[in-house]
Structure formats: structure tokens, C-alpha cells
Design goal:
Radius of gyration: 16 Å
Mean pLDDT: 97
GO molecular function: hydrolase activity
Number of helices: 9
Low-confidence stretches: none
Organism: Paracoccus amoyensis
Strand order of the largest sheet: 2-1-3-4-7-8
Strand content: 15-25%
Number of strands: 8
Pfam families: Abhydrolase_6 (PF12697)
Protein name: Alpha/beta hydrolase
Order of helices and strands: EHEHEHEHEEHHEHEHH
Structural class: alpha/beta
Distance between the termini: 8 Å
Domain AB hydrolase-1: 7-220
Helix content: 25-40%
């Protein structure tokens, strides 16, 4: 039996690698033991793509890249590496060449846009008292509190960084749409997934934090990507 591929998990804005906790536990239970969750600085798309690229280059063998939220822009930008065999997008941005997450969001703003506030240093935060309703309304209040307090704010300028050469044009793609997403307009998720001609699109009655509220279904999609790419 061929060896299972490595899985590299890429977080988005307002969260770090620990947002993948439930998915990591579920994948490990299914026999995926080569698991990696990159911790990106969220300072620019170039910085985040390079950090993720360095991690993938350390892996000898096939890789499935998984991006949540802005992490989808990261895997789109750097996912052309030869050992990357598939891309999985979890309620994620998948910009085309010349597009940015900010530009996509401005065209169809998400419901929770008013709950994002800049600080005096140029970082964007979700207001703590609005985090639960904005980011993860399908999680318990206590879990949302931890996410709100530990949120990882991006530099505001990162929203405007354009993708150069989208990896999804040359790699197999799987996509999960969160029907009740308040951080990325679900219509944008439908648009981005449709134009990539994905192998599968999964719709979940989930918040933006589907990776935390539906870890089994997300692991199912990653498992399918790993299996269908021949590993």
C-alpha cells in the first residue's frame, strides 16, 4: 500500500495553527501521521507564501495542501511546488491572478465586515465582543472566547496583496463552502469554487470556522483528496 501523503494545514486571518486542532486529531485517528500546521506571520502574502513554501520543501514526498480562509490565498500563491499533489480549500479565498482577498470581499462584503477594527499599528482585529457572532457562531461560547482572546491579527495591507500565478489552475482542487459564513460572503465562496472546476464541492451548514465546528467533514474532504491523488 502506498504511503499516505503529508498534510500541510495553513491557517487564515484571526487564528493560528491551533485552529486546526480538531482536524489534526481526526486525521491522525485515520492514519495520517505526517501532519504539519504552518504558523504564518500574516504580514504579507509574500511572507506567508514563503513561510509555507519553506515548510513544504522540507517534506520529502507528496503533499496535500489545505488552506482555511486567507490560507486559501497562501496555498494558491505557493502551491505550484512539484510535490504538492492537491489543494483543499476550507471556507477559503482562492484568488485568480491579479486578485486579492480584499478586492473579492469588497465586491460582495461579508455580514461581519463592520465588526473588524484596525489598531494604531495597522493590524486588523475582530472586536472581541463580536468574535463569536462573526467568526464561529456554531461553536460553544467558551471556545469562541478562547479564539477571540488568542486571535492573530493580520496587517491590514495583507488584504490587498494580489495573487500572481494561481496554483489551482494546474492542481486538483477540493472546496468546502460554509453556508452561514459571516467572514467571507458565501456567494464569493460559490464563485471561487465554481471557476476552479473542483473535484468536489462540499456545502456545510457552518460558520467561517468550519474547521473547528465540523472537523470530521473537513477530514473527509482531505482524505478524499489524498486518496484521489493516488496515495
Amino acid at each position: 500500500m502506498p504511503q499516505r501523503p503529508a498534510i500541510v494545514l495553513v491557517h487564515g486571518f484571526w487564528g493560528g495553527a491551533a485552529h486546526w486542532a480538531g482536524v489534526i486529531k481526526e486525521l491522525h485517528k485515520r492514519g495520517y501521521h505526517d501532519l504539519h500546521a504552518v504558523e504564518n506571520p500574516l504580514t504579507s502574502l509574500a511572507d506567508d507564501a514563503e513561510r509555507t513554501r519553506k515548510m513544504v520543501k522540507q517534506i520529502h514526498g507528496p503533499v496535500i495542501l489545505v488552506g482555511h480562509s486567507y490560507g486559501g490565498a497562501v496555498i494558491t500563491e505557493m502551491g505550484d511546488l512539484p510535490n504538492v499533489k492537491g489543494l483543499v480549500y476550507v471556507a477559503a479565498f482562492a484568488p485568480d491572478a491579479g486578485e486579492s482577498p480584499g478586492g473579492i470581499s469588497q465586491a460582495k462584503p461579508p455580514e461581519a465586515f463592520p465588526n473588524i477594527a484596525p489598531d494604531s499599528d495597522g493590524y486588523l482585529w475582530i472586536k472581541q465582543d463580536k468574535f463569536h457572532e462573526s467568526f464561529c457562531q456554531d461553536l460553544p461560547e467558551a471556545d469562541a472566547l478562547v479564539m477571540a482572546v488568542t486571535q492573530k491579527a493580520p496587517l491590514a495591507s495583507t488584504f490587498g496583496d494580489n495573487v500572481t500565478a494561481p496554483a489551482w489552475k494546474n492542481k486538483p482542487v477540493w472546496y468546502q463552502v460554509s453556508i452561514h459564513d459571516r467572514m467571507i460572503n458565501p456567494e464569493n465562496e460559490e464563485m471561487m469554487s465554481a471557476r476552479m472546476n473542483p473535484k468536489r464541492v462540499v456545502h456545510l451548514a457552518a460558520s467561517h470556522a468550519s474547521l473547528a465546528s465540523h472537523p470530521e467533514e473537513i477530514a473527509d474532504l482531505i482524505d478524499e483528496a489524498a486518496t484521489e491523488t493516488g496515495y
